[in-house]
């Protein structure tokens, strides 16, 4: 079977971090697994290099966008090479063949009537490279995905007729594994059912992007970065050939047509589960077999950020603890789709208990027992007769593991492999082969060793996609090969074998204490300094909330009546409905920016601004400012 496996095509605005490593390692594990099974796999990763975000990042670093792209793209590639990531193609969206593909796609969609010209005005989040409708913004201006401030952009734009594909998308969602985890699928279905707007797919406000095909003669426009980047999944397969599109699935396109699998983070699900299939439908191409979205990593329970200096650098973790140890941790720590937390303590615990004890010690025991009892020879002839129960139990876990990996659930996959290892470890404890030998039951002792060796061999074969070097060491020590033939023998046919082992070093070493320095907060960016006269322009007063109610039609706004010691109370609107119940605020004292020019929000006048502080505990939250003890209404803050 032919398969395409893709990681996201990563932005080059900054160096790779743990999130990028996680997705890429899942893809690598899947690619290795299916190759081992005998499938013809094509695995693509790469870098997303166009758009305003990259243009801005380059300017900050005093680089041209292409220089910035070259530098960071090379860092991604070098990291994956040092991790021995088995990608077949590293695509860059600045590759000439990719740019040609995007132009050919654009021209095709335009000719078929799915692209038309119009004008767009909306709130744009540069960080997410995405427009958001006003009713989805937090407090009317912040991005609902990343929390950053959006800006209003008005520009002439070409649109893609996304709305036309609503019905076909809903039909696609009916196929079982198209979106995983399944819970996420409902979110997507609800989004599509709430009505799709046509998608703006060109930009005129900057120039760092792919220009439109010549037939349109539109030098001001560049292609929207998501339309550009998504086709990086197909440009390396030869979607475009000599200026025309290969829609018949010839050559490497067959990998996508037979089984396209996209592994992504949950942050970019909408682009992959709504826009991407709609683009494919427009071209008459098959849809992916699976779009699987994983969760988000934090560090020591905190969101990672540059200012906290706590972004986990994969290179650093691998240098301190080892690549395979890091791979194991990432794949094992969280069930697919859930958020995970990185901490050195958790990593060390997994290394010591699972890799050293459960896995490493099992290999040492097998080698030790076989050397003592049978000169390194392991005879499996009595195994089936004596240990059918254990073999059957292991085979059930193996079958479950195979189902789990088919849904990209690496953590459950590894858990099942560990259950197989535990059957072997429990058998040693239960039968005590050394006691059997003492009592003259040599056959019995050999059968236990053969059981352990066969279970470890099966586990090592299944483990090899996740921990290729470790599995290869186990196989070398036990004298077998990790290949498709042995996958069929040990896993598909559930058979056993004799082995000849040899002495070996410990597979893993225990880690006594943390090997990386704790994160150091970076210097906060200096904000512009002001004079006292500037501050004096702000009239901040304390007032008491007389009334407070929700604004009809808004989930975010509360309407206040605040007594500021003036002749009449002020009406003030504030976007804090998500964080407070209206009734709990009546009678409380708040701080108000009183000389703010009145503004209309949802048709209601707001005469000032209630001040609040941002808190980031578990997401963005606003906390109202007050005084420590009651003061007179109208008291000046300063
Ligand atoms: O979105 N935890 O690129 P990107 C887990 N160029 N995974 C994380 C993560 C975190 N804290 N942070 C990032 C883009 N990721 C687009 C993709 S595809 C055609 C275009 C991972 O560099 C996760 O896989 O922002 C997420 O989807 C990806 O990095 C986003 O990488």
From TrEMBL:
- Which family does the record claim for this protein? Belongs to the class-I aminoacyl-tRNA synthetase family. MetG type 2A subfamily.
Its main subcellular localisation, reduced to a broad class, is cytoplasm
Q: What class of enzyme is it?
A: ligase
Q: What is this protein called?
A: Methionine--tRNA ligase
Keyword terms of this UniProt record: Aminoacyl-tRNA synthetase, ATP-binding, Coiled coil, Cytoplasm, Ligase, Metal-binding, Nucleotide-binding, Protein biosynthesis, RNA-binding, tRNA-binding, Zinc
Which parts of the sequence form the motif 'HIGH' region? 10-20
Q: What GO molecular function terms would the record report?
A: methionine-tRNA ligase activity
* Short sequence motif 'KMSKS' region: positions: 303-307
HAMAP family to which the protein is assigned, alphabetical: Met_tRNA_synth_type2 (MF_01228)
The EC designation for this entry is: 6.1.1.10
All copies of the TRNA-binding domain together span 534-638
What is its quaternary makeup? Homodimer.
Matches recorded under SUPFAM superfamilies: Anticodon-binding domain of a subclass of class I aminoacyl-tRNA synthetases, Nucleic acid-binding proteins, Nucleotidylyl transferase
């Amino acid at each position: 079977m032919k398969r395409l496996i893709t990681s996201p095509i990563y932005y080059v605005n900054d160096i790779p971090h743990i999130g990028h490593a996680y997705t890429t390692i899942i893809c690598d594990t899947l690619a290795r697994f299916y190759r081992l099974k005998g499938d013809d796999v094509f695995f693509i990763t790469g870098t997303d290099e166009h758009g305003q975000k990259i243009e801005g990042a380059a300017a900050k670093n005093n680089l041209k966008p292409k220089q910035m792209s070259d530098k960071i793209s090379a860092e991604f590639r070098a990291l994956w090479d040092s991790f021995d990531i088995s990608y077949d193609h590293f695509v860059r969206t600045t590759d000439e063949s990719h740019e040609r593909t995007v132009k050919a796609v654009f021209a095709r969609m335009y000719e078929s009537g799915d692209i038309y010209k119009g004008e767009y005005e909306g709130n744009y989040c540069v960080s997410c490279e995405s427009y958001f409708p006003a009713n989805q913004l937090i407090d009317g201006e912040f991005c609902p995905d990343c929390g950053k401030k959006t800006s209003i952009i008005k520009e002439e734009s070409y649109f893609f007729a996304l709305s036309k594909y609503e019905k076909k998308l809903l039909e696609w969602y009916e196929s079982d594994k198209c979106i995983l985890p399944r819970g996420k699928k409902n979110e997507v279905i609800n989004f599509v059912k709430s009505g799709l707007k046509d998608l703006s797919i060109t930009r005129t406000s900057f120039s760092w992007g792919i220009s439109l095909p010549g037939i349109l003669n539109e030098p001001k426009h560049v292609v929207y970065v998501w339309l550009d980047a998504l086709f990086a999944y197909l440009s390396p397969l030869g979607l475009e050939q000599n200026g025309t599109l290969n829609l018949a699935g010839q050559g490497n396109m067959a990998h996508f047509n037979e089984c396209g699998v996209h592994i992504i983070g949950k942050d970019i699900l909408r682009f992959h589960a709504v826009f991407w299939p709609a683009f494919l439908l427009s071209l008459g191409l098959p849809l992916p077999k699976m779009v699987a979205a994983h969760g988000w990593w934090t560090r020591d329970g905190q969101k990672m950020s540059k200012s906290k200096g706590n972004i986990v650098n994969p290179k650093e973790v691998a240098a301190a603890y080892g690549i395979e140890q890091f791979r194991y941790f990432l794949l094992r720590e969280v069930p697919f789709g859930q958020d995970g937390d990185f901490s050195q303590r958790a990593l060390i615990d997994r290394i010591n208990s699972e890799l050293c004890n459960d896995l490493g010690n099992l290999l040492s025991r097998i080698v030790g027992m076989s050397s003592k009892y049978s000169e390194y020879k392991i005879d499996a002839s009595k195994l089936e007769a004596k240990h059918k129960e254990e073999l059957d139990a292991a085979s059930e876990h193996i079958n479950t593991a195979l189902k789990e990996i088919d849904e990209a659930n690496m953590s459950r996959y590894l858990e099942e492999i560990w259950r197989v290892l535990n059957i072997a470890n429990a058998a040693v404890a239960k039968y005590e082969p050394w006691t059997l030998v003492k009592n003259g039951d040599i056959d019995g002792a050999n059968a236990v060793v053969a059981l352990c060796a066969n279970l470890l061999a099966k586990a090592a074969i299944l483990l090899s996609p996740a921990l290729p070097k470790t599995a290869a060491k186990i196989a070398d020590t036990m004298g077998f090969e990790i290949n498709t033939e042995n996958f069929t023998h040990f896993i598909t046919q559930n058979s056993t074998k004799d082995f000849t082992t040899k002495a070996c070093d410990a597979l893993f070493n225990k880690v006594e204490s943390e090997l990386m320095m704790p994160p150091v907060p970076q210097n906060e960016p200096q904000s512009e300094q002001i004079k006292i006269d500037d501050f004096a322009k702000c009239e901040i007063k304390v007032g008491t909330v007389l009334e407070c109610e929700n604004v009809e039609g808004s989930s975010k706004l509360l309407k206040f009546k605040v007594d500021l010691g003036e002749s009449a109370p002020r009406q003030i609107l504030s976007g804090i409905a998500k964080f407070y119940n209206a009734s709990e605020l009546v009678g409380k004292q708040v701080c108000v920016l009183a000389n703010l020019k009145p503004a209309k929000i949802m048709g209601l006048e707001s005469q000032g601004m209630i001040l609040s502080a941002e808190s980031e505990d578990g997401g963005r939250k606003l906390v109202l400012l007050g005084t420590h003890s009651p003061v007179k209404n109208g008291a000046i803050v300063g």
